[in-house]
Sequence to fold (198 residues):
Amino acid sequence: SKVKDLFVYGSSAGAFGTLVHLPTFDSVIPKEAENIKRTLIVDSAGLHFGATFWSKFTPEFKEDFEDAFSRHGLKGGLKDGNLARFIPSLCHLYSHWNIGVIQGSRDIIMSQFFGNISPGDHEDLVFSEEGLYHSTLKSKNCSSWISRSIFHAYLYFSPFRWIKIDNVGPYEFAKKVYRGRSPRNFVSKSLKRVFDLD
Fold:
């Protein structure tokens, strides 16, 4: 009852976990409670997986995830590997949160090693109509920082923290979201900009 500032952060699988458990975090402090800041930073959850992504899991595991999605009011989450299509609903349901998503568009961990998809196909999904970029573009409380790179877990691995897009790195982006001052998306135009080679 004394909490005035709730900050939730997760990277990689932990980032995915923050989305799954957001209803639990939210229920701890009722929406009606005034003067409470709520911030969620989702660092490299992936969210853009291949069509066969869910086939690797047991029926029990998939049932748990369907239950988690239903707590967001979302049905049919396991029919498609592109989970970013649910972001607009999440932003709407949790409009009292400041939500920032950090992602490498060619994230090699969440694509090739985990998501049953190539880095190039992952990037195509990120920028598709139901991908992360468009899903956060029109929201007042959600925004994204998308590096066109293969990197993963930007705030967890300190060297990646210093990559800049329009002079804003993932660390500065997270601070902007926390302060409620990031109503826009940050996207690097090319791999050259990510590596400061141009």
Remarks:
- Strands lie at 5-11, 37-43, 98-104, 142-147, 186-187.
- The helical segments are 13-28, 59-70, 87-93, 109-113, 119-126, 132-137, 170-178, 191-194.
- The longest strand covers residues 5-11.
- DSSP finds eight helices and five strands in the chain.
